Amino acid sequence: MASVKTMHDARTMRSIATRRTPMTEGAVFLQLHRLCSEKLRLEREATLWLRKKERIEQRLGEIEQQMATLRRLGQSAAATSGAGSPKKAWQHVTLEY
Prior knowledge:
This protein is mostly helical. It has one helix spanning 25-81.
């Protein structure tokens, strides 16, 4: 299944390599510098995304634990209350304002 393309996948004028004339030595070094900077930026971004993913997975684990605890409490409360206990009727309260 192919992933959905977003605006992050769009190429910019800087990322499209089109040149009519051969590159000079200075242009080669400039392009190397740009690529190195882009690589560093992407590595930092990947590190940030990995940290975010770890935080999300940790929080999901905490939520699962809390849900399991609440389910156990709900089941034990339902078992101790029993089915034979009478249910309380709703009380009507009139509020004037």
